[in-house]
Amino acid sequence: MFFRQKKQEITVNLTPLIDVVFLLLIFFMVSTSFTRETQIELELPKASVEPLETKPESLEISVDKEGRYFVDGKGLVNESIETLMLALKPSIEANKEISVIISADANTPYQSVVTAMDATSQLGVVNLKMATQRTKE
Q: Of 4, 80, 103, 135, which has the fewest beta carbons less than 10 angstroms from its beta carbon?
């Protein structure tokens, strides 16, 4: 009498493969640098200074070449100083030591930049910075 041997099922263990893929996913998520991008098209004026590091407790006022204001990327309804002050007031009242950064296009009317500086001054901001683009040497 002949007995048949049972065939062993061939299986592929996917556990190590899943572990490796998961570790790669974690590595790429941790090593990815997140850049702050904005939808406002600005051509910053050039200066030969070190780049400004923005802190999380900073407030950014952007002024485009038409003189329109944007507070942290959100456009304002008009270009009046009162509207700008109303947009800035909640953030400044919440944190008196907040750093305000003015990013103005190189072709922005000078009056628009002065108005933004005046609005921050009237609200009591003492830490005011102007954003520029580093010149290539």
A: 4
State the CB neighbour count (10 A cutoff) for residue 79: 17
Tell me which CATH code domain 46-134 carries. 3.30.420.270
Q: Average pLDDT, stretch 69-92?
A: 90
Query: Any residues with CB less than 8 A from the CB of 105 and at least 6 apart, and which?
Result: 41, 42, 43, 44, 63, 64, 65
Percent pLDDT > 90 in the chain is 26
Instruction: Using the structure block, give the residue that is written with the tokens 């939808």.
Output: 39
Confidence of residue 19 (pLDDT cuts 50, 70, 90): very high
pLDDT at 94: 87
The tokens for 102 are: 């003015």
Bridge partners (DSSP) of residue 62 are 70, 103
Domain ranges for the chain: 46-134
Q: Give the percent of the chain with pLDDT over 70.
A: 78
Say whether 17 sits in a helix, a strand or coil: helix
**What stretches of 49-109 adopt beta strand conformation (E)?**
58-63, 69-71, 74-75, 99-104
